[in-house]
Design brief:
The chain is built from seven helices and ten strands. It has helices at residues 38-52, 72-89, 98-104, 147-157, 168-179, 195-207, 226-234; strands at residues 6-10, 16-21, 26-32, 62-68, 93-97, 112-118, 123-132, 135-146, 161-164, 183-185. The strands form two sheets. It has a five-stranded mixed β-sheet with strand order 3-2-1-4-5, with helices on both faces. A five-stranded mixed β-sheet has the order 8-7-6-9-10, with helices on both faces.
Length: 238
């Protein structure tokens, strides 16, 4: 039986990352954490990684993409890129939550895992995870939540929490002050989006036959865009 080969990208934040993985190994991964110019960089990164891996786009069996939450523009670029490739190759697409990917960067962690992506205005995109008997569980579903509310919730749980994501440098001082010894932080490399984790989670879904339809696939945002919120405010809907 031939190996299942996945091409994955994550453009949900300032990080642009591309990976190719098969059933047995991570073949290659590019990560660039410098300026959010995904529309210019993501296709050249894909092309270069394929060339370096001595693969053609026809050799890819599944196209995987971080589906959100995150940057509205970044998510749209990522979705459009992978939908286009999946359509051109007539291959399946799989969307993986950005938060799942961030949490999966910390395998077999003994603490509650709390990815936090900065949603501005003292709010974060968040979900809570735990590894139980070597299995990865979501214990609080995807949400956009005021940081103050998240801190109160975690204080009530009174368990050690491992924070990861781009909200960490923004809110690290406040989290440390409020949670004290209950508060831990991931390493720098594991605290950002990695296409390799998106690829591995997508592989798990692919083996279970859980695919998305590239014709109908859409990112999920958890909240309306700033432009939409400002328009509704202007129209008196808030």
């Amino acid at each position: 039986m031939s190996k299942l080969r996945v091409l994955a990208i994550d453009t949900s934040s300032v990080v642009a990352t591309v990976a190719i993985m098969d059933d047995e190994k991570l073949i290659g991964e590019y990560v660039l954490n410098h300026k959010q110019t995904h529309s210019q960089k993501i296709m050249p990164m894909i092309e270069e990684l394929l060339a370096s891996s001595e693969l053609r786009i026809q050799d890819i069996d599944v196209f995987a993409v971080a589906s959100g939450p995150g940057s509205f523009t970044g998510l749209r670029i990522g979705a459009a890129t992978m939908k286009g490739l999946a359509h051109a190759m007539n291959k399946p697409i799989i969307g993986v939550s950005t938060l799942d990917g961030l949490a999966f960067n910390l395998p077999y962690c003994n603490y509650i895992i709390s990815p936090i992506m900065d949603a501005k205005n003292e709010q974060v995109y968040n979900a809570l995870y735990k590894w139980i008997d070597d299995t990865f569980y979501i214990v609080e579903e995807y949400r956009v939540i005021p940081l103050k509310q998240l801190i109160a919730e975690l204080k009530e749980k009174n368990e050690t929490v491992m924070f990861t994501g781009d909200g960490v440098p923004v809110y690290r001082e406040k989290l440390t002050k409020e949670l004290g010894e209950l508060c831990k932080f991931s390493t720098l490399a594991n605290g950002m989006q990695r296409a390799s984790t998106i690829a591995e989670l997508a592989l798990q879904r692919a083996k279970n036959g859980q695919f998305d339809d590239y014709m109908t696939f859409k990112p999920f945002y958890l909240r309306k865009s700033q432009a939409e919120r400002e328009y509704e405010k202007k129209c008196g809907r808030q």
